[in-house]
């Protein structure tokens, strides 16, 4: 047992160095990806400004519908509201109320509004079930009630 412990003590500095190197490589990769994304955004903005007038809404830039004001318990009966909890790629968890009759596409608008502009990229939504998952498609025009999303947890992941 003593030999294993001394071996671990000898290997420990190398393992720490390796984790630091991996983290620095991840930072470099993130920085390059962010720079490339910024360049791509500048190109798209210049193309968009020449072809049509630019919209001030960041949701309109990605083609998402504008997000209405969040419904509250005071304004609506509890039976017509649903609460969606969203796990973002950076680990944060947020939640918001929607009307059950609203389009699921508003969930994309909400998720897009919660992601920092510097990290904005194409993403997909996944609803996790015990032992399985379901990928949500933006093109579906279903309501929260029809889709089975009412009062559930959804994860955002990069495409």
UniProtKB/TrEMBL annotation:
Q: Does the keyword Nucleotidyltransferase apply?
A: no
InterPro entries registered for this protein in UniProt: Ubiquitin-like_domsf, UBX_dom, UBX_domain-protein
The keyword Manganese is assigned to this record: no
What spans are recorded as compositionally biased (Low complexity)?
Answer: 49-58
- State the UniProt keywords alphabetically: Ubl conjugation pathway
Q: Where is this region: Disordered?
A: 26-74
Domain of life the protein comes from: Eukaryota
> Pfam families, from UniProt?
UBX
Q: Where do the UBX domain residues begin and end?
A: 77-157
Q: Which PANTHER family match?
A: FAS-ASSOCIATED PROTEIN, PLANT UBX DOMAIN-CONTAINING PROTEIN 16-RELATED
| Record-given protein name | Plant UBX domain-containing protein 12-like
- Source organism per entry reads Camelina sativa (False flax)
